[in-house]
Design a protein that fits this description.
CATH topology of the largest domain in chain A: Rossmann fold
Strand order of the largest sheet of chain A: 2-1-4-5
Number of strands of chain A: 10
Number of domains of chain C: 2
Oligomer: heterotrimer
Largest sheet of chain A: 4 strands, parallel
Order of helices and strands of chain A: EHHEEHEHHEHHEEHHEHEHHEH
CATH class of the largest domain in chain C: Mainly Alpha
Structural class of chain C: mainly alpha
CATH superfamily of the largest domain in chain C: Alpha-helical ferredoxin
Distance between the termini of chain A: 27 Å
Number of helices of chain A: 13
Helix content of chain A: 40-55%
Shape of chain C: elongated
Number of domains of chain A: 2
CATH architecture of the largest domain in chain C: Orthogonal Bundle
Helix content of chain C: 40-55%
Chains: A alpha/beta, B alpha/beta, C mainly alpha
Chain lengths: 283, 656, 170
Amino acid sequence: MEAEIAVFWGCRALSGDLALELSTRVVMEALGVRLSDLRRQACCGEPLRSFSIPASCYLALRMLALAAEEGHEELFVPCSKGYYMMKWSQEVLARQEGLREAVKKALASEGLDMAKLARPLSILDVLGGLVGPEAIKGAVERELGLKAAMHPGCYLLRSGEAYRVLEDLKAVLAAAGIEAPYYAGLVDCCGGTLELTRPDAALTLAGSKLKSAAEAGLSCIIVTCPTCFAMLDGRQEEALAAAGGGKQVPVLYLTQILGLALGIEPRELGLPFNRSPVEEVSP
Amino acid sequence: MGGEEPRVGVFVCHCGFNIAGVVDVARVAELAAELPSVVVAEHYPYMCSEPGQALIIERVREHKLNRVVVAACSPAMHEPTFRAVLQRAGLNPYLLEMANIREHCSWPHAHEPGKATEKAFKLVEMAVAKARLLEPLEPREVPIERAALVIGGGIAGITAALDLADAGVRTYLVERAPSIGGKMAMLDKTFPTLDCAACILTPKMVAVARHPNIELLAYSEVKEVRRTEGGFEVRVLKKARYVDEERCTGCGACMEKCPIKVPSEFDQGLGYRKAIYMPFPQAVPRVATIDPEHCLYLTKGKCRVCERFCPAGAIDFSQQDRELLLKVGAIVVATGMGLLDHRHLSEYAGLDSPNVITHLQLERLLSSSGPTGGRVLRPSDGREPRSVAIITCVGSRDERANRYCCRIGCGVAVKQAVLLRERLGPGAEIYVCFMDMRTYGRGLEEFYAKAREEGIKFIRGSPAEVEALPDGRLRLAVYDQSTGKLLEILADLVVLVVGLTPPSGLAELAAMLKVPVGPDGFLLEAHPKLRPAETPIRGIFIAGACQGPKDIVETTAHASAAAMKAASMLLKGYLTAEPFTAVVDEERCRGCGRCEEACEYGAISVVERDGRLIARVNEALCEGCGACAVRCPTGAVRVRGFKPEQILAQVAVAAR
Amino acid sequence: MSGLTDLMTMAKPNEELKRKLAPLLAKLPDACLQCARCTSGCTAFRLLELKPHEIVACARLGFLDELVSSKAIWDCALCLKCVERCPQGVAPAELILALRNEAAARELEVPEGLSTVLMSIMERGLAFAPRKAVARDGRAYGREDVGLPALEVGLSEAAMMALMELMGGA
């Protein structure tokens, strides 16, 4: 199948999380989805929520308005927090006319129209919806034979109905031959957002999450969001130390593990940039 | 109008502060007195009270009034009251017109008294304009079929059917499951007395089967309902059991031999039944049923073992579904309730454990006729649990699922905790996590106290999620508001008291009966306080949980009420219906048939008479909706009491 | 003057602040049933003793100033479990964000991690400063080193001004 969508990468990818962007680009290409980078990219505003909710909503809607201005009806946002932010902002602004007017004015200062916004798409919307499990299954070249701990992450899980998100994620993984059973701690937070205000507690949460996966006997953790990746992969050593020790767990992006199933080389998937022991699951 | 000049009396009610708190009732009466044809206009605090009614009668006689306007609450409240007043005053009761200056005026416009007063007067003026044109009318008596249909064979339907039958009414009881008994048959004990549910229910089930006035149609469904002159004509589908009901003795030999196992619906999926089965040992009728979706012979043409081993030769694979046509005067809907699927709730999303069960599933474990013979055993390994946590309000009082309270959850939780203590012994840990404890009703508060005394730990807090640990135990965290501690409970079994919903198929049945449904999906009663067992539809009554979840005590009271309302109508032999029916001016009618197309009730049709095509009204079926009158191109069809000139007189006033 | 007083602190309800924060909320805290399900599952409670149901209960009664100046509101992990599970749709995490907004407006102390991010957004339109990624081989790689296209990143002047205005007006 062939499709083309615009993509907004988000702050983490744009400031150095190469694994997300590399794996997403190469997997999408393999699955027939052409990505067209949004010309102007900037923060979706999520961290600004604590300072000013209206300002944060403005930045989120700004991305959707820019996408619409560039002629796109949909905008793929691989970062779960960005995706959530773009949906949530519209909900928040619907609550009060004063807020709407303020953001409308802000958008208008750049010549953007609040009435013309692209529709945000999550990684599951693209892999599970646009591409579909059938197409993924058809493209699989390698039997990974894995039982993984899926970690949807708070923002993807809570951007819609939880049971549906889990069903969809399971289906995408199953299509690639990966079993992702229930495990105690499946819906727990990795501490990624808490890192900005209470870094000590955040690491304990991450460590707890790593332990849950290990205790359930699962071979790796699959994340979708770069915030979760930064915690669980990037800071795994510290996290395990904060949680009182424990075995290291391979942590991969959904696109990375899919890429492996599709027969793509680990290097092209950015696996050299993962700090966790990904060689345990990578062929 | 009878050739006499209209002499109108206007009576404006204060309704305490309901009207007078907003509308200047004295002023309205003052202005009304100036209207043409108005002979007297007065106001009074409570027009519907004894002295208020007496006032109207006095004025009618004093001033020789021949038309009365009462400006007060909605006619839905007191129109019958004031019609009776007119009758006592010697006037035809249909010479009354009401102006609703409460629901249509003082209540919605409570913040604008000045404008509300103006509107109230306008409404009165409109009522006077119509009153002048009112004609005396006679209510009509519609004969009705002295038979009733009860839809649903749970405790509500059984109670209603027995009450109706005892009153001498021929009653059909239609139940879609193979046996009557409903949810109550699934229960072990009932709160607060801990009566055995089967022991108090089964005698009633047998009474239904034996009652000379009841025809029991189990494994049957209502397919179509038509309004007729005598009430209703109902098409019922009696599904084929593939077992001869006359021959089957209920011995159970067939069930033993059948090779196909199917998860048992009656056991809520915890146990098995065979493809040929009786849902439970005390089933009524005590007849086996073959499930056509799983029977090897009916799906693949093999087996027939049951036929070989049946000592009564009752198996009949050639049996067909049958259609029956029932003629009844009243219908009592008693279709019960369903259970919410908690797996869509975010806190249970993805959870995969056989040891997290619903309260109804626990009931099956507790029941001696259940899959474990009444022993409480964990579904995963058949071991007795040492620690059980019961969580209430799962999906109830919840904007994401059921907004309403399930009403019986607290009673169920306390009951099941007490029964668990009985079965598992004093060493077992039993926790009940609740949001609020609503054990109202006779004996329930004392029952709750007893439960506390038995060392059951009641925790005021709602758990957020239940986790299944790798070793099979369940873990939940709950914030206990009383101690301020975040508690972790490790349980072997978790029981969720899930929300109660309308039963499957209720929306379709409601549409068939034209009975309205509330925003919560349950059937809507005629008045929430005063008429809970009736619907706005003539001849249709409601009993039990189909009107909203309720416990057994409330259900039996409700069902008897519905039976009484139905019986009082049926035993009179006729229905007194309002005279607002369509009437055809045969001179003007040209038989075009548009009225027949418009009528939802089949009450008007074009017939041939003396070589002409002419519309004819069946008064027994006419509901007076006026759809025909609106469609009629010549104005030949009019509705008594709502004729064009009457309505246009009101419009003329309103438009000024 | 309200007849309600907190006898521990002698504080009175601040209805004005409650009205001010209301437009930012999904539902008023008044809708809260006090079931404490949010606290039962709160990610931050076990480690930091954040009690969302208590915050909502205080807000409901109008005792907002103590919440705005508390450290507890910065302990929220924003995991959204409470938002997902509240049977009344009260969204405690969003109430906490609104309280944080008020604290920021009053120029109270904000955790360093957040301030750093804010300054980064103001400076370059990104929450973090771009840096090279270190691979297994010990070398540092930038976008261009792995063949990723250069992208136009950052906020235009107009956007920056509009942003400052919205932030200032909070």
